[in-house]
Request: fold
Amino acid sequence: MSILSKNQIKFIKSLHQKKYRQEHQMFLLEGEKLVNEALRDKPEIIDCLIINSSFKNKNTLPSHIPIYQTDESIFNSLSQLTTPPNIMAVCKYFEIPSKPINLQKQFTFYLDNINDPGNFGTIIRTCDWFGITELFCSPQCVDVLNPKSIQASKGSFLRVKITYTKFENLNLPDAVNIYAAHMKGKNIFEITDKTGLIILGNEANGISTELLQFVKEKISIPKHPDSHTESLNVAMSAAIIASQFFKS
Reply:
């Protein structure tokens, strides 16, 4: 077990910023549950482990991965979380192999400019729950490796392939249904063909005008007649829509 140098501490802190994550192709994974999931599912991405002096499960850590121990104050300065855990991993960027999706038999989402990392991570987790293996996103969406996205996904970002691409680059066949979640859309409980691509829009502005031209049908989640709520959170909407489409 080693001690972090000043240069290593500086490097780890730099990974708090997207530009340095992209430059070095590395990111931080925090918390015992997420680290254990990475050790189980993708051990090859872990460059090293960092623990604070209060970490109790040292004997369970793998011997083939470098481990650094630091005191609580330094560890907390490395953490990106409001309540720092007692273990983190420095990880390498990774690719999840594509599993072809037949959108005439299956469904997935296209996220249009989703900015909130908590919503983004929750949608990834929802996809994982319902067996959606690939999620498409506009280039303006939040970084999947944003620490809040990672935490909200609860490890699902390790299993769901995230593809950032302009919508037109998907080159979808004409036969594929393209739905848009919209306040004035058709009741989702009346939709019979539950396959295709479902567009979810930005939290504040909805789906961009340029994407609406591709939409074949707008769909909506009905609300109770007495409800005064203006709208649903986009992550909640994704879960309800996925649940309904999954039923088929």
Remarks:
- The chain has eight helices and ten strands.
- The CA atoms of residues 3 and 68 lie 5 Å apart.
